[in-house]
TrEMBL record:
It comes from Streptomyces chitinivorans. This is MBL fold metallo-hydrolase. The lineage of its organism: Bacteria, Bacillati, Actinomycetota, Actinomycetes, Kitasatosporales. Residues 21-214 form the Metallo-beta-lactamase domain.
Length: 237
């Protein structure tokens, strides 16, 4: 059984993937498992799917994509037959920007053949989240919230209420980064980013565990400090 998964709360885990240090998360209920992001290649996604089945003894039934960057979505190719969720607009971007997605993956070090394979069979979101949507997993729920635009035009957060005394967990995607400064590429909307972090804080509250797209799990104080730093950096204070 895969042992590199960190338990955040009962039935809620995450793994920092090798290579790009992107987080893949999972929430297990009685009827299935929700995966949050899928890694950078078809092989990554297949391993995630297998490891979680071994860990929980449940099928992966749902996938939530926090944003449309290669290291978070290309593993979705391994999740055929699974219900896939993303912020409104992400499906059009993935359909019409396949070549740019492949090129970005290769530019960051993905093997060109692996990148092409993943893009060719990429599973697109079936469910578009405009505001908030609750996924029910049998005795467990996860709230999907469209909190962008910010890091990209299509940022989705996943909020998992705690059970058995465990804390609430907020999967932030790259709205929050701990291992380095948040990356604002050409597809970012920096003027809206601080407000998106305010939304995360309102959804999770002071006692939640916030899971960044890259790096160690942080608390509300870290998210608040990063919000203030982004506001100063982009002149939106």
């Amino acid at each position: 059984m895969e042992t590199d998964w960190e338990e955040l709360s009962p039935g809620v885990v995450r793994r920092r993937m090798p290579g790009w240090d992107e987080t893949v998360g999972a929430v297990a209920g009685e009827s299935g498992t929700l995966v949050v992001d899928t890694g950078a290649t078809l092989g990554d996604g297949a391993r995630v799917r297998r490891h979680l089945h071994e860990r929980f003894g449940l099928p992966v039934t749902h996938v939530a994509l926090t944003h449309p960057h290669f290291d978070h979505v290309l593993g979705a190719s391994a999740f055929a037959g699974v219900e896939v969720y993303g912020a409104v607009g992400i499906e059009d971007l993935l359909v019409h920007s396949k070549d740019e997605l492949r090129q970005d993956a290769v530019r960051h070090g993905v093997d060109p053949r692996e990148a092409a394979e993943a893009v060719d069979v990429l599973v697109h979101p079936h469910h578009r989240v405009a505001g908030e949507l609750t996924v029910r997993l049998g005795g467990r729920e996860a709230l999907l919230a469209n909190v962008g635009p910010a890091h990209t035009a299509h940022d989705l957060a996943v909020v998992v209420p705690g059970v058995l005394g465990g804390p609430d967990v907020v999967f932030c995607g790259d709205l929050v980064e701990e291992s380095g400064e948040p990356q604002a590429g050409p597809d970012s909307h920096p003027v809206h980013w601080p407000a998106a972090l305010d939304r995360l804080l309102a959804l999770g509250g002071e006692d939640a565990r916030y899971v960044p797209g890259h790096g160690a799990v942080v608390d509300a104080a870290f998210v608040r400090a990063q919000r203030d730093a982004l506001a100063e950096r982009f002149g939106t204070a």
